[in-house]
UniProtKB/TrEMBL annotation:
Name assigned to this protein: non-specific serine/threonine protein kinase
Pfam families: Pkinase
InterPro entries: Kinase-like_dom_sf (IPR011009), Prot_kinase_dom (IPR000719), Protein_kinase_ATP_BS (IPR017441), Ser/Thr_kinase_AS (IPR008271)
Organism expressing this protein natively: Streptomyces monashensis
Domain Protein kinase: 15-274
Binding-site positions, ATP: K44
């Protein structure tokens, strides 16, 4: 992931922020220096939610400190080390160890799926980590490839981003009643709001193993409704690549949390595969008839006769011979398709509990799409958006002294139909995160934009608009302005009250983008009409190879978290191409 947005702030008198290196649940992660101890660290800035009242914001920050301190007590080689929790300008910051290396998601996107032996190695590390967390009463609640780091050189697996973790006996970090997590990796019992326990993290690990082996979650669909149905009700189809580890995968993807494979059992089974090339049956899997099921507490191992929904099949497959680096590229999204003949057949088990499943589906849909206070777009992208907001309406040339967020002109009209052509762009989904497409724009650049955004050029500016124009992502390339990006942005900010109605809280800071000098302009404004309402803008302008590039996003203040994700992804994937 690229770097941008360094502003060289010093937090708590000792942590100097140098460059943004990523984003995670509710925050932005910075590479930083601990000037007191002379070491490199990672600092996670918990971004404010402007839609929350001040009292709720303070309560949320208090919970952040309380839960971060609990996570800081965890000591495990495969759990990120939290060094410090500080506050500055009424905003929390978590200071963590700096792990040099990309995420598992980055690795899969770049090199393709891993083989069974590597997946088992990763699984063993993560299962050991979650056992330690669960024994301390900490649930992660957002285990997915993007939250697993692979350290360069050593290959160490590190579980990170406990940003939405829940501590036993405490209110959750996010507001009560809101859905948090990434739907493709979220257990069905959490989807419905019925319960959250250690078992839910184990379901997420099962989905993660499938993604590592095949390139995508088995619950990936083209719509939020499709994802919810896949998690709650549809036939679970582990990918063919999961066959060597099938007893573990099926055991972790048991919908009934009381019958789900325990962490200790799963870890032992994966260790056996690494030692022998064979995955043993899950405990109790040989008994397929009815009978009392043993109850499991924590991550321990107890007999559970009659685990009917698992195959219990012993596989004799040896680890695959290919390496991650040689794997073919893959497409991170695909529509619902019939099960391939090569895929393992569904196991025989007790008939589905139709009434219970129907109630669960209804509860999930109602909670996720109506009462949870989370939009479908946010569910699709998970809760790992950075927070923040994004740039204003339209842009004029930095060469004339204005940046992306501020002009008095109206935004371009969105396409009349979601099915309208996005314009003359080519897409390559292999380089875009899940839920995005890579747009190779004829204006001479490429970047990742959400799947449903449509292209709308306006003179020298190019917009990618969400349906209805709620989110506006703008890009402009031009000649280098006098004084560089910082001077151009400061001129734009000075003109902000004229170009953006109700302009306030504007700030221009020195920044960097992929090693190039840049400036970040952030501000709020009243929108172009009362119907549109207040908006927030992030606008980054940088100079590269004698030209200036300007990227901004504008969004309603109540949707700043989604907008910050779109902004971050656009910048992280932006590249100059031949026009």
């Amino acid at each position: 992931m690229g770097t941008e947005g360094a502003d060289f702030r010093v937090i708590a008198g000792r942590y100097r922020l140098e460059a943004r290196i990523g984003r995670g649940g509710m925050g932005v992660v910075w590479r930083a220096s601990d000037e007191l101890l002379g070491r490199r660290v990672a600092v996670k800035e918990i971004l404010a939610d402007d839609a929350l009242p001040d009292d709720d914001t303070r309560r949320r920050q208090d919970r952040t400190f309380r839960e971060a301190r609990a996570v800081a007590q965890l000591r495990h080689p495969h759990i990120i080390v939290v060094h410090d929790v500080v506050e500055q300008d009424e905003r929390p910051y978590l200071v963590m160890e700096l792990v040099e290396g990309g995420s598992l998601a980055d690795r899969i996107a770049r090199y393709g799926p891993v083989d069974a032996a590597e997946a088992a190695r990763i699984g063993v590390a993560l299962l050991s980590a979650v056992r330690t967390a669960h024994e301390a009463g900490v649930l992660h609640r957002d285990i997915k490839p993007a939250n697993v780091l692979i350290e360069s050189g050593t290959g160490r697996v590190v579980l990170t981003d406990f940003g939405i973790a829940q501590v036993a006996g405490a209110t959750t970090l996010t507001e009560t009643g809101s859905f948090v997590g990434s739907p493709e990796y979220t257990a069905p019992e959490r989807m419905s709001g019925v319960r959250t326990g250690p078992e839910s993290d184990l379901w997420s690990l099962g989905a993660l193993l499938c993604t590592a082996l095949s390139g995508e979650s088995p619950f990936r669909r083209d719509s939020i409704g499709g994802i919810l149905h896949a998690v709650v009700a549809a036939e679970i189809r582990p990918p063919a690549e999961a066959e060597p580890l099938l007893p573990v995968v099926r055991g972790l993807l048991e919908r009934d949390p009381d019958r789900r494979l325990g962490a200790a059992d799963a870890e032992e089974m994966l260790r056996t595969y690494l030692e022998t090339g064979r995955t043993p049956d899950a405990p109790g899997a040989a008994a397929t008839s009815g009978g009392a099921r043993g109850h499991r507490t924590g991550g321990g191992r107890t007999a559970r006769p009659g685990a009917g929904s698992r195959t219990g099949q012993r596989t004799g497959s040896r680890p695959a011979s290919r390496t991650a680096g040689m794997a073919a590229p893959y497409s991170p999204t695909r529509p619902d398709v019939p099960r391939s003949p090569a895929a393992p057949a569904p196991s025989a088990g007790p008939p589905p509990r139709t009434a219970t499943r129907g109630v669960l589906i209804a509860a999930v849909l109602v909670a996720a799409l109506a009462g949870a206070g989370v939009s479908a777009a946010l569910l699709l992208h998970g809760d790992d958006a950075g927070g923040g907001g994004s740039p204003g309406g339209t842009t004029t040339s930095p060469a004339t002294g204005t940046g992306g967020g501020g002009t008095g002109t109206r935004p371009p009209s969105p396409s009349p139909s979601p099915t309208a052509s996005p314009g003359p762009t080519r897409t390559d989904s292999r380089t875009a995160p899940s839920g995005y497409r890579t747009a190779r724009d004829p204006a001479g650049f490429s970047l990742a934009v959400p799947q449903d955004f449509t292209r709308s050029p306006q003179g020298e500016r190019v917009f990618y608009l969400s349906p209805g124009g709620t989110f506006r992502l703008g890009i402009r390339a031009g000649a280098a302005p006098p004084g560089g990006p910082r001077a151009a942005m400061e001129r734009s900010a000075a003109d902000g009250p004229r170009t953006n109605p109700g302009y306030h809280d504007g700030r221009v800071t020195r920044a960097a983008h992929a090693g190039h000098p840049a400036a970040l302009w952030e501000f709020s404004w009243d929108g172009f009409s009362a119907a549109e309402g207040p908006r927030h803008t992030y606008d980054l302008c940088w100079e590269e190879s004698g030209r200036v590039y300007d990227v901004w996003v504008s969004a309603p203040v109540g949707k700043v978290r989604e907008a910050r994700e779109y902004f971050d992804v656009a910048l992280d994937t932006f590249s100059v191409t031949a026009s």
